[in-house]
Amino acid sequence: QDLAEVLLRTGSFGEARALLERLVAAHPEDSRNLLLLARVFARAGDSEREGRTCADAAVRFPLVDDFRLLTSALFERQGRRAAARAVIATGLSVHPDSLPLLLEAARLESDRTKKSAAVDLYVSSGGGDPLSAVLALEASPKDRKKYLDLVRRQGGLAREDLIDRTAAAVRGNTDLTRALQTALTSFSGARDL
C-alpha cells in the first residue's frame, strides 16, 4: 500500500493501478486497497472506472464512509450536485455521527439556512475541522461572531485557502475583521488580512 501511495502521489497512475489491482485480488477484505484504486482512477481522470470502483466498494464495504465521500466528489465534478448530496445523506442514514459526512453535507448544502444548521450539527457532534467555521461564515451573517470564537477555540485555520475564504467572508465588516485577526493572532502570530 505504501508503494501504491507513493506511485499515486508521483503521478505514476499505470504502475499504481497495476499494483493495486493485484493487492485487491490478493486481499479482497482490505478496503484500503480498493479506496486507493478509486483514488488512482480519480487522479488519472478516469471517472467511469472511479465510479464503478466506488459502486463496487459501497456494496462490499457499506460501512466505509471514504467511498461515499469519493462518490460524492465524483458526482460533484460531473455537475450532479443533487446526486452528491444524496450519497452523503445515505451515508448519514447509516452513520449519523460521522464527522466527515456531516462536514461534507454542510459543504454541499446550498441553502444558507440549511447550511448553518448542518454546520451547527457538525460542530455539536465534536467536529473540529477549521472548515466548519468557514462554512458557517459563508452560510449565515448572523452567526459569524460565534464561528470566529470557534476558530479561536480550536486553534485557528491551518490552511491558506481557508484563511482566504474566511477573510472574504468578513471583508467590509471592521468588527469581524478585528475578531478574525485576534483569533488568528492567538495561535500563529499576526497575519496581514
Structure in a nutshell:
This protein has helices spanning 2-9, 13-26, 31-44, 47-60, 65-77, 81-94, 99-108, 112-124, 131-139, 144-153, 160-170, 174-188.
Description of the molecule:
Helix 1 (2-9) packs antiparallel against helix 2 and helix 3 runs parallel beside helix 5 (65-77). The chain has 193 residues and is an all-alpha fold. Residues 188-193 have low confidence and may be disordered. The protein has helices at residues 2-9, 13-26, 31-44, 47-60, 65-77, 81-94, 99-108, 112-124, 131-139, 144-153, 160-170, 174-188. The longest helix is centred in the last third of the chain and has 15 residues, at 174-188.
List keywords for this structure.
12 helices; about 190 residues
Low-confidence stretches: 188-193
Radius of gyration from the alpha-carbon trace, in angstroms? 19 Å
Report the major sheet: none
* Strand elements, count: 0
Q: Secondary-structure blueprint of this entry?
A:
Blueprint: H1 2-9, H2 13-26, H3 31-44, H4 47-60, H5 65-77, H6 81-94, H7 99-108, H8 112-124, H9 131-139, H10 144-153, H11 160-170, H12 174-188
